[in-house]
Amino acid sequence: MLTDAHCRNAKPREKLYRLKDFNGLYLEIKPSGIKAWRYRYKLNNKESMFALGNYPDMGLADARERCDEVRKQVKQGIHPVVHRKQEKARLIKEAADTFEALATEWLALKSWETVTKARRLNMLERVVFPTIGKLPIKQITPPIILSILLKSSKENGVTVAAEAKRTMFGIFELACETFRVDANPVHQWREALPKNKTQHKRALSTAEIGQLLKDFSGHGGHFQTIYAFRLMWLTLTRPNEAVRAEWSEIDLESGLWKIQAHRMKNRREHVVPLPRQAVDLLKALHPITGSTPFVFPCRDDRNKPMADATIRQALKKLGWATKYSPHGTRTTGSTRLNELGHRGDVIEAQLAHTEPNSVRRTYNHATYLDERREMMQRWADLLDGWQKISESVEPAATAQ
């Protein structure tokens, strides 16, 4: 049985030799002077030597402890050499499984539009990656996540922090489902994080609709911005659906706009009946932008669509940003059309909302196209009427 003095005083010889401790532990002294701990074991009737470490980096007590660990593996039928290789491979894989790599994998699985993925990646690059992007995911703990969210709330606002929280939760859910982490470190934090006080904009009154359409038509901005805004109101499509409209989707003869499935939120093709006013608008626009893929091409690159942020910028300039957002068009349209007595199913079909009842969603494929065409023509005529009323009112008495 060895002592530390034996280990310390062992001198190299012309040939390698070993000093025996107990339970298969040896100190191997090489001609070069290197002293290495070795564990001799027998597995499947075959003797082998396993390297534990070098002396004096690993002392006698540590060598015995490590030897005990390996001996337990052997008793379980585990080959220590194979186990070490597997453990090394596991550590290499874990080091490669950084948060940034996992986030890239998560984004690739999403069926979002390219612009949506780019916007989410931009948020991650600004808010999350600087802190944990290069960290292995197993090293990321709830306190680290909370510190990111608190910092983001302070520097970028509660809305951005909430988006960061949702995104990180989704990324770590993928890690859980693929067995790369044992638990999701993103908690609810109902009290620790600032509350989001943002409220959805209310539906506009008919007087406000008229005033808004009047203000936007006369705001002096680029004609494409005015036309895109008008088309959005005439069809009650989402802002990004309107500004990214493609000429290949539009049939002016039949008065139909078939928005491709990949551009829709629910990933289903959406057929939009075009009222007379929308057809006239598009016919007037075709000689100007018809040679490009997009109805509203970007001014800097005609092969790309106009950004929906253009509409928000115009609204901010007009002073409407605090009272109305482009997406609020659909809330307003739904509210007013329901008030006018149109059937809920028809309105929901026009808005391309997904039926919440799964059974009904499976069997109800009706698009109510004829009824929707009639409804949207009535809606377009009302928009014209509300705008004309606003234009006839003295500026001082106009509702803002």
Q: Would you write up a description of this structure?
A:
- With 400 residues, the chain is an alpha+beta fold.
- It is built from 16 helices and 7 strands.
- The strands form 2 sheets. Strands 1-2-3-4 form a 4-stranded antiparallel β-sheet, covered by helices on one side.
- A hairpin with a 4-residue loop joins strand 1 and strand 2.
- The longest helix is centred in the last third of the chain and has 24 residues.
- It is elongated, with a radius of gyration of 34 Å.
- The N and C termini lie far apart (94 Å).
- The C terminus is likely disordered.
- This is Integrase arm-type DNA-binding domain-containing protein.
- Belongs to the 'phage' integrase family.
Quick gist of this model?
The protein is of the alpha+beta class. The chain contains 16 helices and seven strands. The strands form two sheets. Strands 1-2-3-4 form a four-stranded antiparallel β-sheet, covered by helices on one side.
CATH topology descriptor of the largest domain? hpI Integrase, Chain A
Give the termini distance in whole angstroms: 94 Å
CATH superfamily heading of the largest domain: Intergrase catalytic core
Rg, rounded, reads: 34 Å
Look at the structure and give the CATH class of the largest domain: Mainly Alpha
Shape: elongated
Low-confidence segments, ≥5 residues, pLDDT <50? 396-400
- Fraction in helix: 40-55%
Query: Proportion of β residues?
Result: 5-15%
Domain Tyr recombinase: 199-376
Protein name: Integrase arm-type DNA-binding domain-containing protein
Keywords: DNA integration, DNA recombination, DNA-binding
Pfam family, one: Arm-DNA-bind_3
